[in-house]
Design a protein that fits this description.
The complex is a heterodimer. Chain A is an all-beta fold. Helix content of chain A is 0%, strand content 53%. In chain B, strand 5 (44-50) and strand 6 form a beta hairpin. Chain B has no helices and 11 strands. Chain B is an all-beta fold. The chains are: A mainly beta, B mainly beta. Chains A and B meet through strand 5, strand 6, strand 10 and strand 11 of A and strand 9 and strand 10 of B.
Chain lengths: 115, 115
C-alpha cells in the first residue's frame, strides 16, 4: 500500500529564512508522482510543485524546490526566503499509476513564519 | 480565481435537511473528485467520477450521494447528516484518472456545519 509520512506537525521559522518540510513515502509502484500542496486558513488547496519518479532533476517552481532522493524515498520541500504569506498547512501527496492511481496525502505540516 | 468552482462556500444545515453541494470545472478534465477534510487532518477521498464511472470509498455513508449531470459538473447530495459530518468538503478535477504526473486542481471548498 502507498503511504506518505510527514513527521513535523508544526514549524516556526523566522521571516526570510529558508525552510525545509520533510516528506517520506512508500510505494511498490514503479512509476509515481509526488506533489506538494499549500492550504491557507481559507481552505483552498494550492498546488505548489510536482516531481515525477523518473525525473532526473529536482523540480523547482520559483521559491519552491523539491529535494528528491529516490533511494531514500524522500521528497522534501524547500522554501527559500520565507515570507509571512507562507504561513499555512503544507501537504505532501503521492499518486501512483499502477495499482492505486488516487492521490493520497500526508498528515501535513503547519508552518508559521515569524516577523 | 480558482478554475474549479464550488458553491456554496459556507452551509449550515439541520440534521433533517436535504442540501446539495455543487462543483464545476471548465478545463475539460475527465475526472472529478469529492474529498472530506476535518480540522487539522488531511483530505480523505469520498468519490471519484472518471469517464462517467463512479468509484466510491466504501467507508462513506449513504447519506452522501454524488451526481454527475455532465462532464463539467459534480454535485454532492446531502440527506440526514450528522453533526460529525461537519467538515470542509473539497472538490477537485484532473485531466485523467491515470497518470502519475496529473495532479489535482482543487476548488476553494464548502465549509459545512450540521446542527
Amino acid at each position: 500500500a502507498q503511504k506518505i509520512t510527514q513527521t513535523q506537525p508544526g514549524m516556526f521559522v523566522q521571516e526570510k529564512e529558508a525552510v525545509t518540510l520533510d516528506c517520506t513515502y512508500d510505494t511498490s509502484d514503479p512509476s509515481y508522482g509526488l506533489f506538494w500542496y499549500k492550504q491557507p486558513s481559507s481552505g483552498e488547496m494550492i498546488f505548489l510543485i510536482y516531481q515525477g519518479s523518473y525525473d532526473q532533476q529536482n523540480a523547482t517552481e520559483g521559491r519552491y524546490s523539491l529535494n528528491f532522493q529516490k533511494a531514500r524515498k524522500s521528497a522534501n520541500l524547500v522554501i527559500s526566503a520565507s515570507q509571512l504569506g507562507d504561513s499555512a498547512m503544507y501537504f505532501c501527496a503521492m499518486r501512483g499509476t499502477v495499482r492505486d492511481d488516487k492521490i493520497i496525502f500526508g498528515k501535513g505540516t503547519r508552518l508559521h513564519i515569524l516577523p | 480565481d480558482t478554475e474549479v468552482t464550488q458553491t456554496p462556500k459556507h452551509l449550515v444545515m439541520g440534521m433533517t435537511n436535504k442540501k446539495s453541494l455543487k462543483c464545476e470545472q471548465h478545463m475539460g478534465h475527465r475526472a472529478m473528485y469529492w474529498y472530506k477534510q476535518k480540522a487539522k487532518k488531511p483530505p480523505e477521498l469520498m468519490f471519484v467520477y472518471s469517464y462517467e464511472k463512479l468509484s466510491i470509498n466504501e467507508s462513506v455513508p449513504s447519506r452522501f450521494s454524488p451526481e454527475c449531470p455532465n462532464s463539467s459538473l459534480l454535485n454532492l447530495h446531502l440527506h440526514a447528516l450528522q453533526p460529525e459530518d461537519s467538515a470542509l468538503y473539497l472538490c477537485a478535477s484532473s485531466p485523467q484518472d491515470r497518470g502519475e504526473n496529473y495532479g489535482y486542481t482543487f476548488g476553494s471548498g464548502t465549509r459545512l456545519t450540521v446542527v
